[in-house]
Specification:
The structure is a homodimer. Chain A is globular and about 60 Å long. In chain A, strand 4, helix 4 and strand 5 form a beta-alpha-beta unit. In chain A, the strands form four sheets. Chain A has a six-stranded parallel sheet, sandwiched between helices. With about 375 residues, chain A is an alpha/beta fold. Chain A contains 14 helices and twelve strands. The relative contact order of chain A is 0.11. At the A-B interface, helix 3, strand 6 and strand 7 of A face helix 3, strand 6 and strand 7 of B.
């Protein structure tokens, strides 16, 4: 599920045409949301056309609300009108929504065509572009309709982060913190040392962050592409995180939900005697330093979050299992499929205690500006 | 893309519960069309429930018109309502439409869940159940939205063929003839010898036919799962066949279209000096003996069929390539990706000649009763 070729470098976007031309495809459809199409659509289109390939740019309305079966169907119909064949290529240029949505178009168009990913958000660069997951949301759940589809190439151009809104930069940093938390204490220490450069968008620092984080995610996916074991670690922070997203009607952004979720699941792990004491506090300190929330809005209670976790995709046969860590950089559960079962009341009490002690942080609200 | 377990045997349907229980899944959704649900739905449901698994039967309106993204979405939504999780299983019971449609549900539900196929048509048993192709139709084309998804198990119970309409039995035989034509002259001779028993639905003869044909298709898929070469052979008769289906608004059934297509493509191969002279005539004799058509309705001309072939999925970069045979049992194109390029005018003239000489057969019409 990992790409044949990876290009994480300055001016990577300019190389798109050469990369696509090297795939021996007959035609390209470049998919971007209405915002990204305006910023990078012409550059992408020009690069592919300059390489001698027929190409079209197709835009869809920006926003999570477009990540639906309806947009997926409309994009596929448009690709068919434009003459995309089995030997065609879909190029996704954008953030997580675009990578997931356009990836699902490529995965299912004539049973699968070539896919090239050009993430333009930090979250896309460190997370969504790696591992082959594609999908759209339905009323029944996030990514309920989806497929695994290997991209042929991934291009990461750090220059595009210059236009990323501050909040989205921080949301991407949350996933990078996760990579450090589950596997690489030094990554976490590095993020703390370079915090100023990262938040100040120094290109060299961002390039190094993406290179490190992408390598971490690729290593986990390579070891367990179909999530039968180790890949479950990537769900650290996501059981509570997904529940928070659902509970807030997805007004709480994914990166913020994962930040809150990591601290929550570290606390659950501490209560279950799986995680070293003090881990939740250390993660909270790092995340707060990056401007990320570490507790949900005040109206969210532990009871609200945990029953919802039962319908999370990690639930097996109705029991709740968590991807936990033993301590920063060291995952738990190596003998139990890299997840650990925690009794619901232990989890509930630990969250109630955690969030009762986070009165200040609990002022954040998705109805206002979340972070 | 081939199943872990294959059960082609009398009373196979009764074993469904044991087979599904062996997959370590938590819950089953059995999908069938409204006709098949009435005939075999309760037997399938009872077998799974008797094995101790929670299961539900979901029916959709019978007919090719249901093979759409809309039905796919409705089935997935229903599965979610019924509590199907990542550890769930979709069981498809039915003909080609059901196997393709329910297979696409399984391929895309939470990025893929376990799939068990129980074909109830001869076409499903010899063709659709093998090879992992799933999909639905859109206005832009057949199977335009689809995915490759490996079934975990396939169960073939020849007893269900007792209720299959005569026309559908013959349509299945067309694909079995194809397997003989592209790979196994003895299979073709056997079909001719056992014609009476096959058309008379003797269970032993049908069981042997399905066993042979399924083995042929499995061998080709095993050698080339992703259709980069040899699997293209399975498209023999399908370039012209698909064009005929499109041209008749899909009133010409697939098996009938493939029968006409095989004779047409054998004639094209003869005109291109690829195929041994007399092959088209021999195929026409065998197919006619099985009650299958060998020429399209009189209003269809070679010109109608061939430009349409340009949008066929086998077209590469706009040029038309055919999967052809050298002679019965021996494929052509081993050095050119198992397809052969034929100039359009050679193809057009050969078809015009063939169909001009088929005045009697050309009386068939999809507006009346096709075969």
């Amino acid at each position: 599920l990992l790409p044949d070729s990876v290009h994480i470098e300055a001016q990577a976007l300019d190389r798109l045409g050469d990369v696509v031309a090297g795939l021996a495809v007959a035609r390209c459809v470049i998919i971007a949301d209405s915002n990204v199409a305006g910023m990078y659509g012409q550059a992408a289109l020009g690069s592919v056309q300059a390489a001698g390939l027929p190409a079209d740019l197709v835009a869809f309305p920006a926003g999570e609300a477009s990540k639906t079966r309806e947009t997926w169907a409309a994009l596929a119909d448009r690709a068919a009108e434009l003459g995309l064949g089995r030997d065609g290529c879909v190029v996704a240029v954008g953030g997580g929504v675009t990578l997931d949505l356009a990836g699902f178009v490529a995965a299912t168009y004539m049973r699968g065509v070539a896919l090239v990913l050009v993430p333009t958000s930090l979250l896309g660069m460190v997370d969504a572009a790696w591992g082959g997951k594609t999908g759209v949301d339905t009323v029944a759940g996030k990514n309920l309709a989806g497929a695994l589809h290997r991209p042929r190439a991934v291009l990461v151009d750090p220059a595009v982060l210059a236009t990323l809104p501050d909040a989205e930069l921080r949301h991407g940093l949350a996933e990078a913190v996760k990579h450090g938390a589950i596997r690489d204490r030094e990554q976490l220490a590095w993020i703390e040392r370079r915090r100023g450069a990262l938040l100040g968008r120094e290109e060299a620092a961002l390039l190094e962050l993406v290179t490190r984080s992408a390598a971490c995610k690729r290593a986990i996916v390579a070891a367990d592409p179909y999530e039968r074991g180790e890949r479950a670690l990537l769900n650290f922070g996501h059981t509570v995180g997904h529940a928070l997203e659902r509970l807030t009607g997805y007004r709480l952004p994914h990166g913020a939900a994962v930040a809150i979720g990591m601290v929550a699941e570290a606390a659950i792990g501490e209560a279950a005697a799986v995680t070293e004491a003090g881990t939740a506090a250390e993660l909270a300190r790092v995340l707060t330093g990056l401007g990320l929330p570490v507790a949900p809005p005040a109206w969210v209670t532990a009871v609200d979050v945990l029953p919802g976790a039962g319908s999370d995709k990690k639930a097996r046969g109705g029991r709740i299992r968590y991807a936990l860590i033993e301590r920063i950089g060291v995952p738990a559960g190596s003998g139990t499929g890299w997840t650990v079962e925690v009794p619901e009341e232990v989890a509930r009490h630990s969250l109630a205690r955690l969030w009762a002690g986070a009165a200040g942080a609990r002022q954040v609200s998705p109805e206002r500006n979340v972070i």
